[in-house]
Amino acid sequence: MIPAAGLAEEGFVSLFDGKSLKGWTLVKGKGPGYLVQDGILVCPAEGGGNLYTEKRYSNFILRFEYRLSPGGNNGLGIRAPLEGDAAYSGMEIQILDDGHEKYKGRLRPEQYTGSIYDVIPARTGFQKPAGEWNEEEVTAQGSKIQVKLNGVIILHTDLEIVQEPAVLKRHYGLKNRSGHIGFLGHGTLVEFRNIRITELP
Protein backbone atom coordinates (compact mmCIF):
# COMPACT_ATOMS: atom_id res chain seq x y z
CA MET A 1 0.00 0.00 0.00
CA ILE A 2 1.31 3.45 -0.92
CA PRO A 3 1.61 5.75 2.09
CA ALA A 4 -0.44 8.93 2.20
CA ALA A 5 1.27 12.28 1.74
CA GLY A 6 3.36 13.11 4.78
CA LEU A 7 3.73 9.46 5.85
CA ALA A 8 6.52 7.04 5.06
CA GLU A 9 7.10 3.31 5.30
CA GLU A 10 9.30 1.83 7.99
CA GLY A 11 12.86 3.04 7.82
CA PHE A 12 12.01 5.99 5.59
CA VAL A 13 11.47 9.62 6.52
CA SER A 14 8.98 11.79 4.62
CA LEU A 15 10.45 14.83 2.87
CA PHE A 16 7.06 16.35 2.03
CA ASP A 17 4.24 16.79 4.53
CA GLY A 18 1.55 17.23 1.88
CA LYS A 19 0.62 20.63 3.30
CA SER A 20 3.58 22.96 2.93
CA LEU A 21 7.09 23.41 1.57
CA LYS A 22 8.58 22.98 5.03
CA GLY A 23 12.10 21.59 4.73
CA TRP A 24 12.51 22.87 1.16
CA THR A 25 13.99 26.02 -0.33
CA LEU A 26 13.28 27.52 -3.76
CA VAL A 27 16.27 28.66 -5.79
CA LYS A 28 15.94 30.55 -9.07
CA GLY A 29 12.17 30.22 -8.96
CA LYS A 30 10.13 30.82 -12.08
CA GLY A 31 6.67 32.36 -12.04
CA PRO A 32 4.67 30.82 -9.20
CA GLY A 33 7.52 28.44 -8.30
CA TYR A 34 6.12 25.28 -6.68
CA LEU A 35 2.70 24.88 -5.05
CA VAL A 36 1.01 22.40 -2.73
CA GLN A 37 -2.43 21.32 -3.92
CA ASP A 38 -4.51 18.49 -2.42
CA GLY A 39 -1.48 16.85 -0.84
CA ILE A 40 0.56 17.03 -4.05
CA LEU A 41 3.72 19.01 -4.76
CA VAL A 42 3.05 20.83 -8.02
CA CYS A 43 5.48 22.40 -10.46
CA PRO A 44 2.93 24.40 -12.47
CA ALA A 45 3.10 25.28 -16.14
CA GLU A 46 5.10 28.50 -16.50
CA GLY A 47 6.45 27.85 -13.00
CA GLY A 48 9.20 25.83 -11.43
CA GLY A 49 12.82 26.61 -10.84
CA ASN A 50 14.90 24.49 -8.48
CA LEU A 51 13.25 23.33 -5.26
CA TYR A 52 15.88 21.84 -2.94
CA THR A 53 15.84 20.08 0.39
CA GLU A 54 17.28 22.27 3.11
CA LYS A 55 19.26 19.28 4.32
CA ARG A 56 22.21 17.79 2.47
CA TYR A 57 22.40 14.07 1.72
CA SER A 58 25.24 11.76 0.75
CA ASN A 59 24.22 8.10 0.44
CA PHE A 60 20.51 7.33 0.36
CA ILE A 61 17.50 5.60 -1.14
CA LEU A 62 14.90 8.12 -2.31
CA ARG A 63 11.39 7.05 -3.29
CA PHE A 64 8.73 9.24 -4.81
CA GLU A 65 5.94 9.34 -7.37
CA TYR A 66 5.61 11.75 -10.26
CA ARG A 67 2.98 12.55 -12.86
CA LEU A 68 3.85 14.31 -16.10
CA SER A 69 1.65 16.49 -18.24
CA PRO A 70 1.99 15.90 -22.00
CA GLY A 71 5.49 17.03 -22.93
CA GLY A 72 6.35 17.54 -19.24
CA ASN A 73 9.98 18.16 -18.32
CA ASN A 74 11.56 18.17 -14.87
CA GLY A 75 14.51 16.53 -13.21
CA LEU A 76 15.76 15.15 -9.93
CA GLY A 77 18.91 16.89 -8.76
CA ILE A 78 21.09 14.94 -6.34
CA ARG A 79 24.26 15.86 -4.44
CA ALA A 80 23.79 19.36 -5.75
CA PRO A 81 24.87 22.71 -4.28
CA LEU A 82 22.26 25.44 -4.06
CA GLU A 83 24.09 27.52 -6.64
CA GLY A 84 24.81 26.74 -10.28
CA ASP A 85 23.05 24.37 -12.67
CA ALA A 86 22.37 21.12 -10.82
CA ALA A 87 22.85 19.07 -14.01
CA TYR A 88 26.51 20.09 -13.94
CA SER A 89 27.32 21.27 -10.41
CA GLY A 90 25.62 18.15 -9.04
CA MET A 91 23.88 15.59 -11.22
CA GLU A 92 20.40 15.39 -12.67
CA ILE A 93 18.27 12.29 -13.10
CA GLN A 94 16.03 13.11 -16.04
CA ILE A 95 12.22 13.21 -15.67
CA LEU A 96 10.69 13.77 -19.09
CA ASP A 97 7.69 12.78 -21.21
CA ASP A 98 10.25 11.51 -23.68
CA GLY A 99 7.69 9.83 -25.93
CA HIS A 100 5.96 13.12 -26.71
CA GLU A 101 5.83 14.28 -30.30
CA LYS A 102 7.81 17.44 -29.59
CA TYR A 103 10.86 15.41 -28.54
CA LYS A 104 10.74 12.95 -31.43
CA GLY A 105 14.12 12.77 -33.14
CA ARG A 106 15.59 15.41 -30.84
CA LEU A 107 16.83 13.40 -27.85
CA ARG A 108 20.22 11.86 -27.30
CA PRO A 109 20.23 8.52 -25.41
CA GLU A 110 21.33 10.21 -22.18
CA GLN A 111 18.35 12.59 -22.23
CA TYR A 112 15.61 10.01 -21.66
CA THR A 113 13.87 9.53 -18.32
CA GLY A 114 16.06 7.92 -15.68
CA SER A 115 19.31 8.89 -17.38
CA ILE A 116 22.03 10.81 -15.60
CA TYR A 117 21.41 13.80 -17.79
CA ASP A 118 23.94 14.26 -20.58
CA VAL A 119 26.20 11.55 -19.12
CA ILE A 120 24.82 7.98 -18.80
CA PRO A 121 21.67 6.69 -20.57
CA ALA A 122 18.92 4.68 -18.91
CA ARG A 123 16.82 1.85 -20.35
CA THR A 124 13.64 3.12 -21.94
CA GLY A 125 10.07 1.91 -22.31
CA PHE A 126 9.08 1.61 -18.65
CA GLN A 127 7.51 5.00 -18.02
CA LYS A 128 3.74 5.26 -17.89
CA PRO A 129 1.94 7.67 -20.23
CA ALA A 130 1.52 11.33 -19.32
CA GLY A 131 -1.30 11.75 -16.83
CA GLU A 132 -0.49 8.53 -14.91
CA TRP A 133 1.54 8.25 -11.73
CA ASN A 134 5.02 6.72 -11.94
CA GLU A 135 6.93 5.28 -8.98
CA GLU A 136 10.65 5.99 -8.91
CA GLU A 137 13.42 4.89 -6.58
CA VAL A 138 16.92 6.35 -6.73
CA THR A 139 19.79 4.81 -4.78
CA ALA A 140 23.06 6.68 -4.38
CA GLN A 141 25.87 4.79 -2.63
CA GLY A 142 29.31 6.25 -3.18
CA SER A 143 29.97 6.29 -6.92
CA LYS A 144 27.18 3.79 -7.60
CA ILE A 145 23.81 5.10 -8.80
CA GLN A 146 20.69 3.03 -9.42
CA VAL A 147 17.32 4.18 -10.76
CA LYS A 148 14.25 1.98 -10.56
CA LEU A 149 11.10 3.04 -12.42
CA ASN A 150 7.78 1.30 -11.82
CA GLY A 151 9.59 -1.68 -10.33
CA VAL A 152 12.17 -2.03 -13.14
CA ILE A 153 15.85 -1.14 -12.79
CA ILE A 154 16.49 1.21 -15.72
CA LEU A 155 19.91 2.47 -14.63
CA HIS A 156 22.58 0.70 -12.60
CA THR A 157 25.95 2.31 -13.00
CA ASP A 158 29.20 3.38 -11.40
CA LEU A 159 30.19 6.99 -12.00
CA GLU A 160 33.80 5.84 -12.15
CA ILE A 161 33.16 4.63 -15.71
CA VAL A 162 33.04 8.28 -16.78
CA GLN A 163 36.65 9.03 -17.69
CA GLU A 164 36.41 11.47 -20.60
CA PRO A 165 38.15 14.72 -19.55
CA ALA A 166 35.67 16.90 -21.43
CA VAL A 167 32.69 15.25 -19.72
CA LEU A 168 34.29 15.44 -16.27
CA LYS A 169 35.10 19.10 -16.80
CA ARG A 170 31.53 19.91 -17.86
CA HIS A 171 29.90 17.67 -15.23
CA TYR A 172 32.24 18.45 -12.35
CA GLY A 173 29.46 17.65 -9.86
CA LEU A 174 29.78 13.92 -10.61
CA LYS A 175 32.59 13.91 -8.04
CA ASN A 176 30.35 15.32 -5.29
CA ARG A 177 29.71 12.93 -2.42
CA SER A 178 27.00 15.01 -0.75
CA GLY A 179 24.61 17.82 -1.54
CA HIS A 180 20.97 18.78 -1.73
CA ILE A 181 18.16 16.86 -3.41
CA GLY A 182 15.93 18.91 -5.66
CA PHE A 183 13.26 19.02 -8.31
CA LEU A 184 14.38 20.96 -11.35
CA GLY A 185 11.39 22.50 -13.11
CA HIS A 186 11.41 23.70 -16.69
CA GLY A 187 8.10 25.53 -17.03
CA THR A 188 5.83 22.51 -17.57
CA LEU A 189 3.28 20.91 -15.27
CA VAL A 190 4.79 18.04 -13.28
CA GLU A 191 3.44 16.74 -9.96
CA PHE A 192 5.08 14.83 -7.10
CA ARG A 193 3.88 12.97 -4.03
CA ASN A 194 4.98 10.40 -1.42
CA ILE A 195 8.53 11.72 -1.30
CA ARG A 196 10.53 9.79 1.29
CA ILE A 197 14.12 8.90 2.01
CA THR A 198 16.34 6.63 4.04
CA GLU A 199 20.00 7.46 4.53
CA LEU A 200 22.66 4.81 3.95
CA PRO A 201 26.05 4.48 5.65
Keywords:
mainly beta; 2 helices; eight-stranded antiparallel sheet; about 200 residues; five-stranded antiparallel sheet; Jelly Rolls; disordered N terminus
Describe the structure.
The radius of gyration is 15 Å and the shape is globular. The chain contains two helices and 13 strands; from the N terminus they run βββββββαββββαββ. Strands 1, 3, 4, 6, 9, 10, 11 and 13 form an eight-stranded antiparallel sheet that branches. A five-stranded antiparallel sheet has the order 2-5-12-7-8. The protein has helices at residues 86-89, 165-170, and strands at 13-14, 24-30, 35-37, 40-43, 48-57, 60-68, 73-80, 91-96, 133-141, 144-149, 152-158, 179-186, 190-199. It is mainly beta. Residues 1-6 have low confidence and may be disordered. The protein has one domain (24-199): Jelly Rolls, CATH 2.60.120.560. The chain starts with 12 loop residues before the first strand and ends with a strand.
Briefly, what is this?
The chain has helices spanning 86-89, 165-170; strands at residues 13-14, 24-30, 35-37, 40-43, 48-57, 60-68, 73-80, 91-96, 133-141, 144-149, 152-158, 179-186, 190-199. With 201 residues, it is mainly beta.
Mean of pLDDT? 95
Q: How many helical stretches? A: 2
Task: Provide the structure class.
Answer: mainly beta
Low-confidence stretches: 1-6
Distance between the termini: 27 Å
CATH superfamily heading: Exo-inulinase, domain 1
Q: Which series of helices and strands comes N to C? A: EEEEEEEHEEEEHEE
CATH architecture call: Sandwich
What is the CATH topology assignment? Jelly Rolls
- Cα-based radius of gyration, to the nearest Å: 15 Å
Look at the structure and give the CATH class. Mainly Beta
Number of strands: 13
Total count of domains: 1
